[in-house]
Q: What sequence folds into this?
């Protein structure tokens, strides 16, 4: 794999305020660490980082950090370990570089790229493509890191799958995934559930509920008169008028 040069400068000031000042200048705060070296705060430009990470190697590019400044160090071969982005603008906020040795094997994840999707037999028949493993972790020397694993699914039918053992890997690259693992498959098309038609003569539950209430009302006895309150005066009976004498 080709090594890409990336210019960086030592970052003297650290802390939240210093980090914010670096970002306001349009640059990116970074840090370099690894076995045998002390964590080193750095600064890189947005433009240089973009060019270094937008190659065929992608995020797995081997980077030769050329650290400038009054206390410049020798060039360091490293990989990008982590990239933090602003959740709103998606701009890179911080980068972690990890120093590596070109003579020692490392563990790294390699992306899987699916080819011939439009021509796949199962996709043409309405099947659903399912890429189960977007990346495959491998162990190899840094100079032997594959850029990607390309998988053609042109001959896949519905229900077929491609296992890891069916993907051709370089002889000096060891996968850390079981060889029987399914990497990509094509599922049968999803069936839409159709509600069954209403049964003829069926009565809606709400109507039945209403009918029961009406029947209960018709057969109910008349309400009893309200009970008299204790101490309440009873209405006096009207006296019959006495007949007048002639």
A:
């Amino acid at each position: 794999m080709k090594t890409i040069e990336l210019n960086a400068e030592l970052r003297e000031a650290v802390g939240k305020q210093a980090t914010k000042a670096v970002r306001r200048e349009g640059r990116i705060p970074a840090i370099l660490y690894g076995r045998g070296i002390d964590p080193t705060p750095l600064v890189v430009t947005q433009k240089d980082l973009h060019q270094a990470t937008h190659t065929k190697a992608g995020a797995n590019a081997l980077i030769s950090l050329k650290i400038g400044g009054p206390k410049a160090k020798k060039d360091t071969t490293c990989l990008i370990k982590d990239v933090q982005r602003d959740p709103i603008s998606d701009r890179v906020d911080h980068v972690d570089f990890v120093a590596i040795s070109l003579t020692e094997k490392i563990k790294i994840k390699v992306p899987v790229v699916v080819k011939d999707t439009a021509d796949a037999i199962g996709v043409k028949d309405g099947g659903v493509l399912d890429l189960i493993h977007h990346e495959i972790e491998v162990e190899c020397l840094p100079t032997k890191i594959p850029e990607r694993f390309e998988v053609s699914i042109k001959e896949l039918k519905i229900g077929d799958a491609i296992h890891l053992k069916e993907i051709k890997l370089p002889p000096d690259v060891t996968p850390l995934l079981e060889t029987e693992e399914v990497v990509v498959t094509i599922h049968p098309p999803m069936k839409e559930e159709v509600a069954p038609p209403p049964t003829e003569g069926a009565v809606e539950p709400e109507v039945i509920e209403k009918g029961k209430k009406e029947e209960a009302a018709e057969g109910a006895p008349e309400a009893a008169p309200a009970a008299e309150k204790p101490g309440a005066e009873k209405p006096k009976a009207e006296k019959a008028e006495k007949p007048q004498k002639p």
About this structure: The chain has two domains: 3-99, 106-187.
